[in-house]
Every structure is written in structure tokens, then in C-alpha cells.
Amino acid sequence: MKEMKVNNEKVLIRKAKKSDAKSLIEYLNVIGGESDFLTFGRDQFGRSIEQEEEYIDNSLKKENALFIIAEVNGKVVGNLNFSGGTRQRNAHVGEFGVSILKAYWGNGIGEELIKYLIKWSKNSGLIRKINLRTRTDNTRGISLYKRLGFLEEGVLKRDFLINGEFYDSLQMGLIID
What we know:
Keywords: Transferase. By secondary structure, the chain is an alpha+beta fold. The chain has helices spanning 21-31, 49-61, 109-124, 139-147, and strands at residues 2-6, 9-15, 65-72, 75-84, 93-100, 129-135, 151-162, 165-175. The protein has one domain (2-127): Aminopeptidase (3-Layer(aba) Sandwich). 28% of the residues lie in helices and 38% in strands. Strands 1-2-3-4-5-6-8-7 form an 8-stranded mixed β-sheet, with helices on both faces. Helix 1 (21-31) packs across helix 2 (49-61). The chain is globular and about 40 Å long.
């Protein structure tokens, strides 16, 4: 658990729990409409509360998975989800996604969530590489990832299709040793 201040509000960063499922679904359905950089749009997240509870529960059971949220006054304002590989040969590597409510953009919450993941990965003794992919036009995100040590590894052509238009994505990685 970690705390930070944003606009005189206390932001709590903590592991997700099963009881967060309803507020996470509500949060995810909102942020889907706030940014085209996500893999889903407004109200397109597509999980029921029960499915989200099961997803959170499964994440908590895995040594190579992390699901954390940022909350202000009990309201979810950000989240990060990391999943490692499912087999022995790729359990040491995984990919994450991160999102923040638009009202909280530019306050360092996303950076703190990613730093939490990096620290957790280093302490895990299991995770040796963190991957991510983002649209190539997500300049703010790419700048943050580079600042935190992520390196560009390749471009995936036509990886996203949004409103009839294709977008490339950038594969990035951070080696943990």
C-alpha cells in the first residue's frame, strides 16, 4: 500500500480486492470513453461484476500477477493490471495495462502505479521482464515509459481499429534483474 497527495486529496494505491469489482466495472466503463488509447471504448469493457470478482480473485492467487488500484475517498481513479505468462517457460515475463480517470491525468498517479509494479517485480524474485504495448501516437505515455526505463522493441502494424481507422502500436519492455 502506498499513499500520495494530489490536489490536497489523499490517493491510496493498493492491491485490488474482490469487493472492488462493482466500482472497477463502473470505472472501466467510464475511462473507455475518455481515451482512445485503451483496447475498449465507453461501456465496452464487457465483464459482469461476477466475472470481474472471479478475475480479481484469480489475479490474487497467482504469484506472477498484480492488480492494483488508485483510489480517492473510496472512489477508483486509476488501475494497473499485470499478468505473467501461464507456463514455466514464460512465467517470468508479463504485460501490463494502466489507466487513470481523465480528471486525474497529469498528476503522477500513473507513474506511481508503474513504479509500484516495478518494485513489486524486483521483489518478486520471479518477474524478469515487464512488457507493454501502446499506440504509437500516445506520446505522453511513451515519454513516461521511457523515463521509467522501458525500451522500444518494435512496432505492430494495424494493431488497433478505432472508428474505421487503423493505428500501429509500440511494443516496449523493461528488463528486471
